[in-house]
Amino acid sequence: MIPACVGDYRELARRRLPRLLFDYIDGGSYAEATLRRNVEDFEAAALRQRVLRDVSQVSLQTEVFGQTLAMPLALAPVGMAGMYARRGEVQAARAARAGGVPFTLSTMGVCDLDEVTAGVGAPPWFQLYMIKDRGYIEALLDQARDKACPVLMFTVDLPLPGARYRDMRSGLFGGSDPLAGVKRALDGLGHPAWLWDVQINGGPHTFGNLAAAIPEAKGVAEFWPWVLRNFDPSLTWKDIEWVRARWPGPLVVKGVLDPDDAREARRCGVDGIVVSNHGGRQLDGVLSGVAALPPIVDAVGDDLAVLMDGGVRSGLDVVKALALGAKACLIGRAWAWALGARGEAGVAHMLSLLRQEMLMAMSLTGCADVRAAGRELLAESR
Q: Are 96 and 71 in contact (CB under 8 A)?
């Protein structure tokens, strides 16, 4: 099958990946209501078609945090992406750089910051979780600063991990099932192309940036209990100020869904926020990112760069988010599916598909420049 859209890449990834890895990225928390809402709310938003406008020269180029982007997209942080293809974070970062968009390296990636920087020839954006060991976090900040990472993205919506039933059923993180290890092994053996590419030729597999902090964790079964012990539920806005004092570059807070929190982020001196519900993987039943976006944009105005993620499955979705005030969108599942399906080439092709979809949406809404996109592009604005 030649993929024609992000959904095609999802299907290819489902076929190629062990079930437990596919379910890890594909699933959400609890009943997955928010996961569905993220997509459905984009589908419900109607673009306003306009004709006989000069759209012979449509520009998707924009600027975010002083960086020129070929289109208003960035690859969101995705944990364990190095298990989807051989040294997966490096492959995805290469595709992103070739496509002129940023790649954000997850704290919980398989490839660490040194490997991604060396493999791509430029440092990525770096995503940070706060763990209880502030000394370790400070060392990560120092490393990201020394590597000249252009942006630090601080994810704040994981004081505790949401219950993800698919992962419990698949045995991804072990739990109480004594046969979980056997199930994982059989799952891998049933996907020989993945097994050869990733497990046999792609090692060693550690939790890259956290490898020194969790030497006792030899695999995913031991990793989740470590997260429960070490992620810090006492995190407050004072910790944002602590990070701000130690990070000289653009600082972005990811995981904001409420206008009051957006105002508080502004007070702490951050440069941007990502309107996000963690892809529907944390608190189920909350607003979708696209529904939460307009009041947050109204609350902070032009004081902060507002990005969003959650449910972005096409270039048309990106244009809808821009119309509602986002400066750019982050995509997570889309690039993870493409990586799992076809590696670097898949991510590069998926980005080209999104680009073509954006160009079509811009052309038929009569908007020749993404920087001019506003709510007049939506039918509801009439």
A: no
The mean pLDDT of 276-299, rounded to a whole number, is 97
The pLDDT confidence band at residue 60, using thresholds 50, 70 and 90, is very high
Q: Where are the beta strands (DSSP E) in the chain?
A: 62-64, 67-69, 73-75, 104-105, 125-128, 152-155, 251-256, 272-275, 305-308, 328-331
C-alpha distance from residue 121 to each of 29, 118, 151, 273, 289 (Å): 36, 5, 16, 27, 33
**Residue 278 bears catalytic tag:** yes
SS3 308: strand
Q: What is the DSSP string of 116-138?
A: HHHHHTSPPEEEE--BS-HHHHH
**Whether pLDDT at 3 is above 90:** yes
Domain covering 6-381 assigned CATH 3.10.20.310 in the classification = no
| Local confidence band at 178 (pLDDT 50, 70, 90 cut-offs) | low
The one catalytic residue among 191, 205, 278, 349: 278
Is the per-residue pLDDT at 177 higher than 90? no
Predicted structure pTM score: 0.95
Query: 221: which 2 tokens?
Result: 């079964």
d(CA 280, CA 28): 5
* Residue located via tokens 């980005």: 351
